[in-house]
Amino acid sequence: QCNLAGLWKNDLGSTMQVHNVDNEGNFSGTYHTAVSSAKQPIQPSPLRGSQHLDEDGKCTFGFVVNWKSFSDSTTVFVGQCFVDDKEREVLQTAWLLRDKVDGVDSNWKATK
């Protein structure tokens, strides 16, 4: 059974702290990225998300990180929790990052 509550670390050294997941699957926490193109020093940033609570434990989830403390961007993550052959919980995710741009003419370069 996957439980998103706790401290997670990815291959690049970013960490995510998820607080308790409520009965509806909602959660909050902080994300501390290890990589950024922002000119300001990296700071831990708030996240809010939702987990689909499944009886089989193979939950899907999504969350949003607002990088407001050091950047004008927002990232959304979606993923699924798996248990590997060593009985470890593993999150597999995909993400989209949206930078703020000055106008609609620059919209093409705003999402990574």
UniProtKB/TrEMBL annotation:
Give the intrachain disulfide bonds: C2-C81
Where does the UniProt entry say this protein principally localizes?
secreted
Q: Record's PANTHER family? A: AVID PROTEIN-RELATED, AVIDIN-RELATED
Q: Which family does it belong to?
A: Belongs to the avidin/streptavidin family.
Compartments (UniProt record):
Secreted
Enumerate the InterPro entries for this protein: Avidin, Avidin-like_sf, Avidin/str, Avidin/Streptavidin-rel
**Record's keyword terms, sorted:** Biotin, Disulfide bond, Glycoprotein, Secreted, Signal
**How does the annotation summarize its subunit structure?**
Homotetramer.
Cited Gene3D superfamilies: Avidin-like
Q: Name one GO cellular component term.
A: extracellular region
Which Gene Ontology terms cover its molecular function? Answer: biotin binding
> What protein name is recorded for this chain?
Avidin
What does the UniProt function comment say about this protein?
Answer: Forms a strong non-covalent specific complex with biotin.
